Amino acid sequence: MPELLVTDNGIQFKSAEFSQFCSENGVRHVTTAPFHPQSNGQAERFVDTFKRAVRKIQEGEGTIKEALDLFLMTYRTTPNPNVPDKKSPAEAMYNRPLRTTMDLLRAPPEQVADQANSSQTRAFAPKDFVYAKVYSRNKWTWTPGTVVEKVGKVMYNIWLNDRRMIRSHINQLRARTGTIAKSPSSKQQLPINILLNEWKLSTASTPIVRASTSPPLGNVEPTSPTSIVGQPVASPASSSSSSTSTSSSSADFRSANDSSPAVRLPRRSSRNRRPPQWFQAYRRY
Prior knowledge:
Layout lengths: L3 E4 L8 H9 L3 E4 L9 H17 L6 H13 L12 H6 L34 E8 L2 E13 L3 E6 L4 E5 L3 E3 L8 H15 L37 H24 L26
Parallel strand pairs: 1-2
Antiparallel strand pairs: 3-4, 3-7, 4-5, 5-6
C-alpha cells in the first residue's frame, strides 16, 4: 500500500467507497487543482505515452489485448532514468533483468568454470576403466567395465567384464586404474583384506618356526654320562627316533604355516545392544 496517492478530481476518486478504502489502509489521498493537469504531470505523461504506443501497435492486425501485452512488456523492460541505477522497472522489482528477444543480439556470456569443482573431473573417455553400478533384485554391486562411448552429456555405454552392454549415468560410474589380475591367492586374500582395511587393521605377520634337523649320527660326538647331572643319557636308538619325530613334526608345522598364514581378527564392539523401542498406538484425546 502506498503512503501518499495523488489523483485528479474524477468521480471515481471522490466517491465514499474510495475514501473509506484509503482511511482503512492508512493511505493519504491528495487531489490536484481543477483544470490544471500539470499538477499530476507524471501520470498525465504516462497516459499520453500509452495512447500513442497502443495506436501504433494496432496499425497491424493485432487486437487490443495483444497490443496491451506488448506495450507492458516493452515498457517494463526498458531502462528508466528515474529508477535508481537507471534500471528497468522489472529489474528493480525482481532484482534481475528479464530475458527478451533483444537478448539474442548480444554475444553469449563466457562460461566460467567452477574452481571448486575443477579438481574433480566428471568425464570419461572411451576405453577408460571404470566401475559401474549394476542393479539386480533390489540390490546393486560395483562391476568392472570399460567405457565404449559417450551418449549426450552425462550418459555412457559401458561394456562389462561379463560381456554385457549397459547404459549408466555419470553418477553411477567410478574410475578404476588398470585391470585386476585374477589368481587363486588373490581371490582368497581379497575378502580378508577388504575387511581389515574397513576396520583399519594391519595383517599380523606370524613368524614361521623352522626346526633344524638333527645332524647324522656319525657326526655326533659322544657325551659322557656325567656331563648332565641328574639326567640320563639318551641311547642312539632313542635319539634317532626323537630326531625323526622332531623333523617330521617341524615339517608338518612348516607346511601348515606356509599354506594358511595367521591373520589377526578384527576387534569386535563391546557395547551393550538394546532392543528397539517401538512407538505405541496413536491415541486421540
